[in-house]
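TL;DR need structure tokens for one chain.
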Amino acid sequence: MTHTKPSCPICRSAAEPVYTLGRDKILSALNRFFNTRFDQAIVPTDYTMHRCPACTLVFPEPMLPGNDAFYHALVKQPGYYSDYRPEYDVVADLIGAPQAHKNILDIGCGEGDFLVLMRKRQHTALEGIDTTEASVTRCREKGLNVTNSRIETFGGGPFQAITAFHCLEHVDDPLAFIRHSMKLLAPGGKLYIATPYSPQVSEMYWFHPLNHPPHHLLRLNEKSYLRLAAETGTKAELINFQHASFTSMIRSAFSFAVYGENRKGSSLEMMGRMLLHPMVSYKVIKNMWRREKIKGRTAGSDILVVFTAA
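>> reply
TL;DR here they are.
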């Protein structure tokens, strides 16, 4: 029996299967990651990950995102929401000083940390949307103007800047996400999107449950982002904003490979650990050397992409 290959959600090319993820594996990894025991119902199905040969996007079949029960369970976990991400300041600097009529929308705003940062920078025309009611409630408690909505059904704007921090990788239709976001921009406005750059450095030898379904559906890189821009009639500028040195990325990848976590320690301590595992160290260094480059620099674990009208 011949099975139809799923179409890439960016370029519609037929994709090839690369690995399978059973419900039990995903649930077990989530339990270890958060040191808890989740209800089995939060992981709805088994997944098969596929890779598009044209744009290199990796995505699951079925394209089934986490449901309300899944996110309700995750948002209760300490550390699920990051109080601060380095890309917040990068984007805030790119947006610049507050001006009259400089409206800003944050998609998937979580608990509102970026909006709070912008408020501290004296911006006043701030809005956010999120689909998790508990997060919307938390934002409103902070005095933020936040609505429970998806971008596809949101009717505000126009905005001079729209941001989406670690949101796009959760959606099942990236083309619709970009198109609807761009429609809400004022002339000359910009869409700032930050996501993991897959595979992340930690994933070279370690399974990251939050960068796989049902949490993350899309595993994006430079080629898939450029194709996404082409398919939506936009321009995309990739900013490799992370300033970790090549050496520190090797140390992080080695630590995840051996210990399953990013262990801290002095350079001398890490060198001693690497000498105890020479073959792992060799593979880590070789693969890091081969890792994709963005404008001549080794890609970090996250990427910032600025979309503008073509």
